[in-house]
Amino acid sequence: MPTMLEVAGLRHDYGSHTALAELDFAVPARELACIVGPSGCGKSTLLRCVAGLLSPTAGTVRLHGDLVSGVPEDLAVVFQDYSRSLFPWLSVRANVEFPLRGRGVAKAERRERAAEALGWVGLEGVGSKYPWQLSGGMQQRVSIARALASRPALLLMDEPFASVDAQTRFELEDLLRRVQRERGSTVLLVTHDIDESVYLGDRVLVLSKSPASIVAELTVDLPAERDQITTRESAEFVRLRGEVARLLHGGPTDEELAARDLAEAEAAEREAAPRTSTT
Ligand SMILES: Nc1ncnc2c1ncn2[C@@H]1O[C@H](COP(=O)(O)OP(=O)(O)OP(=O)(O)O)[C@@H](O)[C@H]1O
């Protein structure tokens, strides 16, 4: 797959405080990459640099090869706080159409694309309602539809499910994976939830404490079709969430545990071997 997002040597300083230190990573087209990191490590700073809202102190961000130096037209963002990102005085349909209107898309096409995007997230028939008439989970689905209606090259998601209850969160996670795969979208999603990063991601990028650097990039070798119960019970899921937790909280990594197991096995073997007499 061609590279959709390339971050090279990215550093961001707020005055004398370094928030991001030399970040390098790439996201191929059609991948759902999750970034997980401890609180305050620099996740929002990273997203703002990728979205062109903050200029890097050093390094570059490229979207499909083009240097990002302002907010790219073909980038959409979904934030945690849906109640502040949707306009309460506009209908659901008008909210979804809003960015398209700003880009000069003709009315008939706006209508068609909004209806299509609402269909992708299972909200056919609610276009004439207002956001405040919908549940929190449904409002966040409207935000996702609005982001997808503009057919972005890259969808950035900043803790998108952190403000909904656990049951709704599971539903939204499944919805995101389904829509991302059906639409072939490229997604970079930031979360502080280890389980969510493993459940959703094709890959998990683990950030260090502030100043943020990438401590590991883990490929999530789980089946593409995931299920909230069986996937979370699977041995690979449990192994990966343990690995991410150790990387975040400073315990031994899988490699260190394997080296420790090997050393213990070798010691046991030496112990069990028949001793040769030296006298
Ligand atoms: N505008 C700013 N001026 C100065 N320092 C800032 C500014 N914004 C963030 N910081 C600092 O930069 C570091 C990274 O902040 P950032 O908000 O990017 O982290 P985060 O991982 O998104 O945090 P959280 O987990 O709380 O969402 C923190 O130490 C923060 O205090």
From TrEMBL:
Species the sequence originates in: Amycolatopsis suaedae
UniProt KW Cytoplasm keyword: no
UniProt KW keywords: ATP-binding, Cell membrane, Membrane, Nucleotide-binding, Translocase, Transport
SUPFAM superfamilies assigned to the protein according to its UniProt record, in alphabetical order: P-loop containing nucleoside triphosphate hydrolases
Record GO terms (molecular function): ATP binding; ATP hydrolysis activity
SMART domains: AAA
Record PANTHER family: ALIPHATIC SULFONATES IMPORT ATP-BINDING PROTEIN SSUB (PTHR42788:SF17), TAURINE IMPORT ATP-BINDING PROTEIN-RELATED (PTHR42788)
UniProt-listed Pfam families: ABC_tran
Superkingdom per UniProt: Bacteria
Name this protein carries in UniProt: ABC transporter ATP-binding protein
Start and end residues of each ABC transporter domain: 5-234
InterPro entries on file: AAA+_ATPase, ABC_transporter-like_ATP-bd, ABC_transporter-like_CS, ABC_transporter_ATP-bind, P-loop_NTPase
